[in-house]
Amino acid sequence: MELAVGSILEGKVTGITKFGAFVSLPEGKTGLVHISEIAHSYVNDINEHLKTGQDVKVKVIAIDESGRINLSIKKALPPPEQDRTQRQPRDNRQSGEGKSQDRKFSSPPPQPRAPLTAEENFEERLTRFMQESKSNMASSKLYSEKRNRRRAR
Questions:
Q1: Whole-number Å distance between alpha carbons of 130 and 50
Q2: Cα–Cα distance, 31 to 73 (Å, whole number)
Q3: Hey, is 56 helix, strand or coil?
Q4: Cβ(58)–Cβ(50) under 8 Å?
Q5: Alpha-carbon distance 35 to 95, whole Å?
Q6: What is the pTM of this model?
Q7: How far apart, in Å, are the Cα atoms of 70 and each of 34, 55, 79, 134?
Q8: Nearest Cα to 124, choosing from 110, 134, 114?
Q9: How far apart are CA 140 and CA 149, in angstroms?
Q10: 19-33, 44-58, 85-99: lowest mean pLDDT where?
């Protein structure tokens, strides 16, 4: 079987580094699974997901001009189920709910938080917190700038 981009193959983990795992493929070839291609969730330590000698299913995602083979474990797996409650609209502008005609400038509505899951580890929670914090800070700054412009007139 010839290796081609998009092929899904069985391989064996032959080595683990900080940045990825080497996988031996059929016909004596070896490819690299980068740390970002190991799982659908954030991977801090590869050793928590893979062991040397483990059989894995991989997808060939690229072969460069020097013959290096880039592999993905997460693309060889079906995507994880997403919680449909997280896909709800963030505000009710179309329905008219929550509108205040009395104030010209109102504070931005709080962003709803996605529910925590038992599988979520500390790094994922920290990443989500940082994203929410940056979003809230940007909204607050925009609100303050609007208020200051209005006062300057």
A1: 28
A2: 12
A3: strand
A4: no
A5: 44
A6: 0.52
A7: 8, 17, 19, 34
A8: 114
A9: 14
A10: 85-99
Report whether 56 contacts 11 (CB < 8 A). yes
User: In the numeric block, which tokens belong to residue 119?
Assistant: 């599988």
Residue 101: CA atoms inside 13 Å, Cβ hemisphere, count?
2
Give, in order, the Cα–Cα distances in Å from 146 to each of 100, 101, 102, 104, 105: 17, 17, 17, 10, 8
Question: What does the domain layout of the chain look like in residue ranges?
Answer: 8-76, 104-152
> d(Cα 149, Cα 152) in Å, to the nearest integer?
5
pLDDT band at 81 (very low <50, low <70, confident <90, very high): confident
Say which CATH topology domain 8-76 has.
Answer: OB fold (Dihydrolipoamide Acetyltransferase, E2P) (2.40.50)
